[in-house]
Structure formats: C-alpha cells, structure tokens
Design brief:
- By secondary structure, this protein is mainly α.
- It has a domain of about 130 residues: Growth Hormone, Chain: A (Up-down Bundle).
- It is about 50% helix and about 5% strand.
- It has eight helices and two strands.
- The C terminus is likely disordered.
Length: about 260
C-alpha cells in the first residue's frame, strides 16, 4: 500500500496566511452581539456615580455628530437614497448609530476619569464603564478631525449615557452595527449646496448689483482728497518761491504779532 504525503512548503503556507489576513477577503468588519452587554440595572449604577460626583465637573461632548447618516449600501438599503430601514418602533439604524457614537466618546471619558479618581470613585466609574465597554469590541475607525467638542457638566454626560443605553438595549442583539464604525460629522455650512428656488436665486444675485455702488463709495474719499492734496502742494511751492530771496536781495525782518500791535497803538 502506497501512502502519498503532501510536502510542506513554507512559501505556500506564508502566501496562504497573507491571503487569509487580506482585508479584501475578510469582508465587512462585524459589530454585532449575540447576548446583550447592557445589564438591566445600568440606571442604578449611573445614579450611584452621579450621587458621588461633583455635578458641575467639566467634560466635553461632540457638538456636530451627523444626525442623518450618509447613503449606505447593503441589505435593505439603496445607493443614493437615505437609509430606509425602519424598525417597528420607528427607530432607524442611523439613529442607533449616533447613539453608539455618543457612547464611544463617553466611554473614553470614563477611562480618562479613572486615571485621576480615588479607589472608591474608580469602582463607581468602572461599574458604569462596564455598561459601555461593548463599544470597544467593534473596530471603530479613528475619530475624524472634523469633530468639534463643547464643554458641559458631567451630570449631562451621565444623563446622555443613560438615554443612549435605553435606546440601544432593545436592538443591541437584533441589529448588526457594522455600518456604524465610522463617526461622521455634520456637513459644514460652507459646503452645503445653495437652494435652487427662484427667490433664493434673486437673493443671491442681489449682492452682485450692489458691488459697483460699494466700489464707488470706497473710491470716493481718495478721489476727493487728491485735488485737495494737489492744491496744498501747489500753495506750499508758491509760498516757498515768494519767501526765497533772489541773489543780492535782502528780505525785511519779520516782526512778531506782539510788536505789530504795539506799533499800531
């Protein structure tokens, strides 16, 4: 009986490993949960932390997270249209994405606060942080540079954490959040497409008709000052010419105004 054994080739094994690690073959990064990572008593944990913290402790929150996500391609979605996947309760996936993004930023604050807190505070922070730790299991993209942050009190941050956990809890095991892995900013007002209505076009054309008038007003003061400056220069030259003695000519002494008054008296 002859047994054929396949020869082991290091080069082939290395190529196979590279193919398996290739991003194109791994597919879309997954962000789904088979069991709910949000406990039923998360509100109690947040309240315990809120009672112990200074309510006006300053933290920052993102002020320009996008409300309506970009067009996505996937099951139940159409390219070039807004997301049409509506849940029975009226919650859209894009709304869940924004809640997930807010928890990503809040979870980073919990980690940062633990580094400066005492032992008891650390336990309370870790208890709340555990409720949001599931966001670290998803391969989120780095934070975009377009995010803007505003300062608020930590009490507001804790209230927002509670609100987002309430919204996500019914859907955390029923939805795949792989479309939410990139935080998005609201488009800047300077990049928005202007409206195409006739009234809007008239409003945008109005400043163009005012530009010649504005230019005239800007040029009017220099135009008026130029003849005055020329007249002053000419008058000064004539005065210098009159007061300059000719060769051999001697000017009479100039008397001061006080001497003239004494002679008249």
């Amino acid at each position: 009986m002859t047994v054929l054994a396949l020869a082991w080739n290091p080069t082939s094994s290395l190529l196979l490993l590279l193919l398996l690690l290739s991003p194109g073959l791994r597919g879309t990064p997954d962000c789904s949960f088979t069991h709910s990572p949000i406990t039923s008593n998360f509100a109690i944990k947040i309240q315990e932390l809120s009672d112990y913290l200074l309510q006006d402790y300053p933290v920052t929150v993102a002020s320009n997270l996008q409300d309506v996500s970009h067009s996505w391609e996937g099951p139940g979605m159409e390219v070039g249209h807004r997301l049409q996947m509506h849940h029975p309760a009226g919650t859209r996936l894009e709304e869940l994405c924004k809640g997930l993004w807010r928890l990503v930023l809040a979870q980073r604050w919990m980690e940062q606060l633990k580094t400066v807190a005492g032992s008891h505070m650390q336990r309370l922070l870790e208890s709340v942080n555990t409720e949001m730790h599931f966001v670290t299991l998803c391969p989120f993209q780095p934070l975009p540079s377009c995010l803007r942050f505003v300062q608020t009190d930590i009490s507001h941050l804790l209230q927002d954490i509670s609100a987002q956990l309430v919204a996500l809890k019914p859907w955390i095991t029923r939805r795949n959040f792989s479309q939410c892995l990139e935080l998005q900013c609201q488009p800047d007002s300077s990049t928005l497409i202007p409206p195409r209505s006739p009234g809007a076009l008239e409003a945008t054309m109005l400043p163009a008709s005012q530009s010649p008038l504005l230019l005239l007003l800007l040029l009017l003061p220099p135009t008026l000052l130029l003849p005055v400056a020329a007249w002053c220069l000419c008058w000064r030259r004539r005065r210098i010419t009159r007061t300059t003695p000719r060769p051999g000519e001697q000017l009479p002494p100039v008397s001061c105004p006080q001497e003239v008054l004494l002679e008249e008296q």
